[in-house]
Amino acid sequence: MMLEALRSIVQAVNAAGDLQSALDIIVSRIAEVMNTEVCTVYLRDPDSKRLIFMANQGLNPELIGKVSLGPDEGLVGLVARREEPVNLDHAEKHPNFLFLPGIGEEHYHSFLGAPIIHQRSVMGVLVVQQKDSRRFDEDEEAFLVTMSAQLAGVIAHARATGSINTAQNTVGATASFKGIAGATGVAIGQAVVIVPLAELHSVPRRQSDDPQAELKAFAEALDAVRVDIRALSDKLLTQLPADEHALFDVYLRIIDDGAWASEVVAKIEAGEWAQGALSQVMSSHVRAFEMMEDAYFKERATDIKDLGRRVLSYLQASDVEPTEYPEKTILVGEELTASMLGDVPRDRLVGMVSVRGSSNSHVAILARAMGIPTVMGASDLPYTQIENANLIVDGYSGYVHYNPTADVYEHFRSVSEEDHALNQGLEALRDLPSETLDGHRMPLWVNTGLMADVARSLDRGAEGVGLYRTEIPFLLRERFPSEEEQRIIYREQLLAFAPLPVTMRTLDIGGDKALPYFPIEEENPFLGWRGIRVTLDHPEIFLVQVRAMLKASEGLNNLRIMLPMISNVQEVDEALELVRRAFDELLEDGWDISLPPIGVMVEVPAAVYQARQLARRVDFLSVGSNDLTQYLLAVDRNNTRVADLYHAYHPAVLNSLQQVVDAAHAEGKPVGICGELAGDPAAVLILMAMGYDMLSMNDNSLLRVKAVIRSCRFEDLQGLLDGVMVVDTADEVKALLRKAMIGVGMERLLQPIGSA
């Protein structure tokens, strides 16, 4: 019963139009379910930190928004401060009790308060009160705690949305939304919201210049759907049982029901474009049906959603006006894709924001390759409401600033200018050797995946490719590329960099990289079927790819092959056998090729502990620091909830990195690193000291890293490493590296500190 009540309250709150409506629903429904006389929500003001009386059932409504408590005041302040529930039978006898005149709570003796906490931050306090002098029982306390935990995310989202969309705040509202840094840099520009086809919930709000044209388009779309459904009905007349076929009549009745259509018409006449009006009305009806108790009516929500999508697809097809891209376009979407990116003129695209997705998403990799500041996974951003809004994308910290204040704008404008000036200054290093002041050479290679990466990588003085992501061509197709298609792609890469070495990683799919034509459905994909596990289970895919690589290397001999996601020596032995088989077959067929160096990626903890055994079997090791950090710390780096725990400077990560170098060198094998850490200018100081033979990074980081290398003395780095390896926390490591960067005059290369 309580679970059902919880579900219905959360559904009702999700359907609320703004924050205040959500809070009003919360207090009335909780009071009803818990059968209490009073329910109140206090929300913490982010600036003053005071707890404001924001919604109430049972007390004086005239004081809503006017009464507040400091963090040290009253029982409400006590709940917020202790971050745990307070349950009292005589509230007025508690030393923290504070009498608020006029609010009317002096008659209520029982008090139960629970903190509302979102991502470690206390957002407010939820309180129920009763006249009886009794302690609330365990079930009631558990319900209120569960309710506050459920509502924390809802309130955070409603608050973020409300900061843009409440009527009193439409003009001049400012807000910041946290995501994941996808590509570094700062972008200042105007939002252009990209809408996926026939997705009702993704349609942005937009004012129309020609309501009559919008009304005509809506009427024509309705007629077209009516014709489609009748045609489908006739076609399936003999193939469906009568009761199932009757569904088409239900669809037609919904279309002919003038009530919802007139709501759409009214919104269009009020200035909304047809797609937005349809989206808002249909979404509202869908939510209403989903909240009904009756199973039959709940099912109707699906029918309405389906009809809405059909009408929307016709509206989208008739909307032939090309999208206008402002001079400084920031592309925003629920889930941006490479094809969406392709529509924007490159000289106008300055930044990107994707509500879903991760820093490993294809579009984020593309953004880094193109040098476009990007934030991924900004899940609280109410993207449908920000068309044409002024945005700042902070690709360093992962924040999106909506309608920034003059101070915030000025701060990021200066960061952007510094970035530009710094990049211009670094160009002078392009042809200079990557070596320390005392002559220690540190080869800098690049990570690539697209032909677009190649020219810039060579331009910036790359000495080879430490990671070519072969999955990119697979992701860009609707089927597995053939052996010849792969050979042509790989040949282009090898030719472009020849005679410099190119390290091609065999297909690494799974985790968060799924091929649309080879879906891998798993509850825990990062601990599942990915990397070498997939290709060893499908030797036909592996052999085709290896043959294509070997053929592509003919006459160039600059290929290196790297095996991903290795967790035991048997996988290496099997893979080596398949590579040699492919090589022998091609020799028999007359190809003039030599067996390339083969290496292993060290990216799971098991490979760290077997690094020496792995090094014996292969020609080189390469650490994938992104996945290694993720697996060592049990933190999904693409999950905003735990992103703060993902830290490549964690002592456990650094110890593992040192262990891999020692193991590889004990077997006389070179070892490199190709994760994000290799492109971190501060981390380079300790990676060199650890003994890494090569660093491979995003081409945008290459000159920054070279600047640090050319500013330090190798003989000084061992002392820094010794200090780093004995501290206990990532923050202490960071402080030591910051000090070292200042010491070599490179503090300007440390990540700029955003305003958020």
Automatic annotation (TrEMBL):
GO terms for cellular component: cytoplasm. One of its GO terms (molecular function) is phosphoenolpyruvate-protein phosphotransferase activity. Its main location: cytoplasm. It is an enzyme of class 2 (transferase). It comes from the Bacteria. Keywords: Cytoplasm, Kinase, Magnesium, Metal-binding, Phosphotransferase system, Sugar transport, Transferase, Transport. GO terms for biological process: phosphoenolpyruvate-dependent sugar phosphotransferase system. It is found in: Cytoplasm. Its cofactor is Mg(2+). Residues 18-165 form the GAF domain. InterPro entries: GAF, GAF-like_dom_sf, PEP-util_enz_mobile_dom, PEP-utilizing_PTS_enzyme, PEP_util_C, PEP_util_CS, Phosphohistidine_dom_sf, PTS_EI-like. It catalyses: L-histidyl-[protein] + phosphoenolpyruvate = N(pros)-phospho-L-histidyl-[protein] + pyruvate. Its EC number is 2.7.3.9. SMART domains: GAF. Belongs to the PEP-utilizing enzyme family. This is phosphoenolpyruvate--protein phosphotransferase. It comes from Zhongshania antarctica.
